[in-house]
From TrEMBL:
The lineage of its organism: Bacteria, Bacillati, Bacillota, Bacilli, Bacillales. Residues 2-211 form the Glutamine amidotransferase type-2 domain. Belongs to the asparagine synthetase family. It comes from Geomicrobium sediminis. Keywords: Amino-acid biosynthesis, Asparagine biosynthesis, ATP-binding, Glutamine amidotransferase, Ligase, Nucleotide-binding. It comes from the Bacteria. This is asparagine synthase (glutamine-hydrolyzing). PROSITE patterns: GATASE_TYPE_2 (PS51278). InterPro entries: Asn_synth_AEB, Asn_synthase, ASN_synthetase/amidase, AsnB_N, GATase_2_dom, Ntn_hydrolases_N, Rossmann-like_a/b/a_fold. It catalyses: L-aspartate + L-glutamine + ATP + H2O = L-asparagine + L-glutamate + AMP + diphosphate + H(+). One of its GO terms (molecular function) is asparagine synthase (glutamine-hydrolyzing) activity. Signal peptide: none annotated.
Length: 629
């Protein structure tokens, strides 16, 4: 929807360079830029107009002028909340959801957070109490970065804006780098918060005032799974009703709404439900020239079945190389997920037609959609081995040469879940990091991130524990960050109907036997969608966003990667000769190092953009900058 930044000033600070702030936030809100400055605070806001296009400007003041808000996201139940406030005697000047948030805070204080259904990050300043209250939605759909020091408190929708407010530039953090090399993104959990990438965690809120030495952060939402024992038909019906309700409120907009369509069950279900509200729905798909790496034909077939328009685009390796610095710049953090590529290009395609898109993120985490979630069932026989025999089998398996069939199966089967599963991506292991890192003397185990989460999930079966790990790491740290940044790079708002509080309430009650059964994943979602999807879609296997980086790195991108490695000023972090050796082995077909190479090279590009050239990327934008009185 938008981008914001702001600061609470404990001491005198130089004025914010509003033009540079506007330049860095322009892509998040090209329709309007406004600010408020006084002795205590500075608030800036870049608006992407979705609701109440002519009014609802931000920063917005309450009618009493006591409260001031900046807000990014959508409150999907704002119509109902607004009506209830009107019935209590509250008067509104606008038709959008921002003023509803302000009114709720004025009436209910911080408890208002429990009434919200939507995606959001916001900050509200109380001029009388001189206190800031901020919150982020339960799943982390919208970002909220912050920093604090003796001069004050700084916050923003994007990390790159914080130094412009007076926050100190953050150097690369060693522990963050270690975790990035494991996860392909930088996680943020209860057990670990990286000083270089401090974020308000999903489902958390904070309070900051001059009376507090530092911001007080607390959790208001805790994801819990509690299986019910209802029959499959009843659960499927309840889930379908929850999804219909979610898509209905996600379609609320004063501008055109479209949808991403990959051809799989997640996006197809969203499109089928959205078409009930918008018969002329437009859908968008991208693919690649290489066979097996494109869902365009599947998406077109699905679109024809559902009776919606489909726009498609084929991405080339050369385009990716041309755009990679822009992709990394907009990601803001080093994230080596190749899915950022199709997300970037499908968002660019959609931006030519609509301002809002629906997407299927979250379904895999809520309904056990990843194939890896089947693994505990496949390995359960190892649980019957005596401990000493278990250790002996693992020792024996590790003596076998790499590549021997069954070696990894034996190792994984004899390794406890908390030690073997770190999430959907595990890139470099400990031994490989010792070769990759220039300074490998201090090792930060990935269990710093995952152990606190496993401790919270001990009461559940192994597959549910895996979902819980992904829900708190992979989903907000990778999937939703990529989705937000790549859509905002092209100034469109991405909405995710699966990650709705009411949908999660149903999903959390579904037993694992209704998710992983009949040889498939997301069984209950398939049952819920059976009546609204054509059979060809219903039985289709998940492809995701396949990207042919393995082939590109052997061919079109080989010299490009060589050049990046040679030019990179990351010798203090990375053993570049090791990266080049991986590239040569990969090019010769000796091993598939594509994900490792992509992780290393993405970090090098990120370092060049944000460390080596961080003052040279601003694009001059000319538009009015308005003060809010």
């Amino acid at each position: 929807m938008c981008g914001f930044c702001g600061r609470v000033k404990r001491t005198y600070m130089d004025s914010v360079d509003l033009h540079r702030v506007e330049e860095r936030m322009h892509h998040r809100g090209p329709d309007d830029f406004r600010y408020v400055q006084d002795s205590d605070i500075d608030f800036c806001f870049s608006r992407l107009s979705i609701q109440d296009l002519s009014n609802a400007h931000q920063p917005m003041q309450s009618l009493s002028k006591q409260y001031l808000i900046v807000f990014n996201g959508e409150i999907y139940n704002y119509v109902e909340l607004r009506q209830s406030l009107i019935e209590e005697g509250y008067y509104f000047q606008t038709e959008g959801d921002t003023e509803v948030l302000l009114a709720l805070y004025e009436v209910y204080g911080k408890q208002m957070i429990y009434q919200l259904r939507g995606m959001f990050a916001f900050a509200i300043w109380d001029r009388v109490e001189r206190e800031l209250f901020a919150a982020r939605d339960p799943f982390g759909i919208k970002p909220f970065y912050y920093d604090e020091n003796e001069a004050g408190f700084f916050f923003s929708s994007e990390r790159k804006c914080l130094p412009l407010l007076g926050a100190e530039h953050k150097a690369v953090d060693k522990e963050a780098l270690h975790h990035y090399l494991t996860f392909q993104y930088i996680p943020s959990t209860d057990g670990y918060t990286d000083a270089a990438f401090q974020q308000l965690k999903p489902g958390h809120c904070l309070t900051y005032s001059f009376d507090l030495e530092k911001a007080h952060v607390e959790r208001y939402f805790q994801a819990q799974f509690c299986s019910s024992v209802e029959g499959t038909k009843n659960v499927a019906t309840t889930l379908q009703q929850a999804l219909q309700s979610s898509v209905s409120v996600h379609m609320r907009s004063d501008v055109s709404v479209g949808a991403f369509l990959s051809g799989g069950i997640d996006s197809s279900t969203i499109v089928a439900l959205a078409k009930e509200h918008h018969p002329n729905l437009q859908t968008f798909t991208v693919g690649f020239e290489r066979e097996g790496y494109s869902e365009i034909e599947l998406a077109k077939e699905t679109a024809d079945h559902l009776g919606v328009d489909n726009h498609s685009y084929i991405i080339t390796a050369q385009e990716v190389m041309n755009e990679m610095e822009n992709i990394v710049y907009h990601l803001d953090e080093p994230i080596a997920d190749p899915a950022a590529i199709p997300n970037y290009f499908v968002s660019r395609l959609a931006s030519q037609h609509v301002k809002v898109v629906l997407s299927g993120e979250g379904a895999d985490e809520l309904f056990a959609g990843y194939e890896i979630y089947k693994e505990p069932n496949a390995l359960k026989g190892f649980g019957y081995l005596p401990r000493r025999l278990n250790h002996w089998v693992q020792w024996l398996a590790r003596q076998l040469p790499e590549g021997i069939k069954g070696r990894n199966y034996l190792i994984r089967g004899t390794t406890p879940l908390a030690e073997r599963y770190v999430g959907n991506a595990k890139i470099f292991n400990l031994e490989e990091k010792e070769l990759l890192l220039a300074d490998a003397g201090c090792i930060y185990p990935y269990t710093n991130v995952t152990k606190p989460l496993y401790d919270q999930a001990l009461q559940w079966d192994d597959s549910t524990q895996m979902q819980y790990i992904d829900l708190h790491t992979w989903l907000p740290g990778d999937i939703l960050t990529v989705a937000d940044r790549m859509s905002m790079a092209h100034s469109i708002e991405l909405r995710v109907p699966f990650l709705d509080q009411q949908v999660f309430e149903v999903a959390s009650m579904i037993p694992q036997s209704m998710k992983l059964t009949a040889g498939t994943t997301k069984f209950i979602l398939r049952e819920a969608a059976k009546d609204i999807l054509p059979e060809a879609v219903f039985n289709r296997k998940k492809l995701g966003f396949p990207v042919p980086i393995r082939h590109w790195l052997q061919n079109e991108m080989y010299e490009w990667v060589q050049s990046i490695v040679h030019r990179s000023n990351t010798d203090m972090f990375i053993n570049k000769s090791y990266v080049l050796s991986l590239l040569d082995e990969h090019a010769k077909g000796m091993a598939n190092h594509s994900r490792k190479l992509w992780t290393a090279v993405t970090f090098m590009i990120w370092h060049r953009v944000f460390e080596e050239e961080r003052t040279s990327r601003e694009v001059l934008v000319s538009r009015p900058i308005h003060a809010v009185l």
